[in-house]
Every structure is written in C-alpha cells, then in structure tokens.
C-alpha cells in the first residue's frame, strides 16, 4: 500500500532517488495516468515533470499529457516551464521542445522565461532561440499544426511553414486557422502561400496530374473524392 501511495503521490517523497523509482513504477503500472494536479503543484513538481518526460520520451509524454484533465495539464505545463533556462541548447532545448509538443504553445516554449513571460531578446531575429524555434516549426508533423494553441503560435508557424508541409497541415487546420495562415503567409512566406492557393484542402485547386481525367470520369466517385485523390497524386509528384 505504501508503494502504491508513492506511485500516486511522488511529490510526497523527499528522497530524490526514491522519487525517481516511484515515478518509474508508476509508469510501469500506468499509475501516472491517474495523477492529480497536486503532484505538479508541489515544489517538487518541476523535477517530477522533467523526470516523467525523460523516462517516457517526448512522444509518449505528449500522449499522456493530452490524456490528463485540464487542471492537471495546466499544472504540469507550468512545472515544465519552471525548469527553463536561457541556454537553448542541450537539456534546456529538450525541455522547451517537449513543452511545445505537449501544449502546442510554441511561442512560449521558445520565447518565454521560466515564468512564461515572453522576452524580446529571445524573439530577436538571428538569436539562438529564434533559430531553434524556426527549426522546430519546420520539423512539425501534420497533426502538430492542428494542435497549435494560440494565434501567436499559428502566426509564427505560418511565417515559417515549408512548402512541403503545406498539404498535410491543411488537413488538420480549421477553416478559420487556414485563413489566418494564408493571411500571414501572403505577406511573410510567399512560396508557402502560392502552394496554399494550389491545394484543394486550402480552398485552391491542385495542379493537373496525369490521372486527373481518369479520376474525374471514374464512376462512383464524388467530385470531392476525386479532388482528394488528385491532391494526393499531386503531392506525390511534388515530392518526387
């Protein structure tokens, strides 16, 4: 019973080694999915959040983070952020990437201090934080675009989304978000904007592909289904 209680409330353990062992057991038994916000509210919350992220890996940590109730996500996010430094390399960069992946708050992840306050020096063009933020955006997968949190996050992503990412992102963004992306890209990311204009998912028309006539004439397909297949074919051609 004592061991189970340690798994449920690792913040109650003073010894660091025992706390890490309790977190490891909690992960093995899936007890970490039952944690309350109190686990991260404690002074040990930052260490617990970081240790959980290290043991799970960023991908699995993100899945668990999203499964928690909102009050737990809020406290866990705050605890992760409290561990930020100004280095933007090594462990600090990994913490920031994990925070961005889990919360969708990419702007805070790369431009805020450990209190969540955005710093002008971090936003400055040419800064290490700016460079790492751009690299992070250009490494996003389709679903990550759909998980972006605020307009600030979406605006930054629109400035730096690559042409190759446009098609996939369009399948995950809402109509309102796509309009925001196009508005920003039109001014700051013209190559991406031109790609958005061509793609059906963004309200445009994909380029003619070798199969376009066959798709249109194929019986049993709606116009929308035909265009979706054309878009897939177009994307394949562009990648090749």
> What fraction strand?
under 5%
Shape descriptor: globular
Structural class: mainly alpha
Average pLDDT reading: 89
Level of helix content?
55-70%
First-residue to last-residue Cα separation: 59 Å
Order of helices and strands: HHHHHHHHHHHHHHHHH
Radius of gyration over alpha carbons? 22 Å
Number of E strands: 0
Low-confidence stretches: 208-217
Tell me about the biggest sheet? none
Count of helices? 17
Explain the overall architecture.
This protein is mostly helical. It is built from 17 helices and no strands. α12 crosses α14. The longest helix has 17 residues. The termini are far apart. About 4% of the residues have low confidence.
